[in-house]
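User: Predict the complex with magnesium ion.
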Amino acid sequence: MALERTFSIIKPDATRRNLTGAVNSYIEKAGLRIIAQKRILLTKAQAETFYAVHKERPFFGELVEFMISEPIVVQVLQGDDAVAKYREVMGATNPANAAEGTIRKDFALSVGENSAHGSDSLENAAIEIAQFFSGNEIVG
Ligand code: RTP
Ligand code: MG
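Assistant: Here is the predicted structure with magnesium ion placed in the model:
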């Protein structure tokens, strides 16, 4: 197992319901360490850049509006196999398909308002972390 870093977002539906600490407890219970964290309000341009891979998808406009609707919490998580492990802790994109005990099963409201983001590869994790954190904000 390799020690990795992944990028996480606690999405607006979760911050709105005051679930930051609740989500963090799932992260920490899984053995992942929150090594950087801040609460921010995304600009439209930041949200469009972050989700650029989905710009041709029918839900893109809705996704961007959702992501800028309330503050989010951006995080860097560190641990063994952090990328895959956090995807497991989050559960499937659609909460209807998410496994028991996952963040999305327990908190997500819908496929769009699904409480958490986690990088889908080590390469994307590095790109996403660099979008939101400078090196001296991350203390591993
Ligand atoms: P994420 O990137 O946020 O970690 O989620 P993911 O990998 O599980 O899912 P992805 O396919 O990358 O989709 C990104 C986000 O877009 C929203 N979405 N809405 N209305 C819809 O059908 C739909 N499909 C996706 C979700 O917020 C999803 O997490
Ligand atoms: Mg994704």
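Residues 32 and 106 are 19 Å apart (CA to CA).
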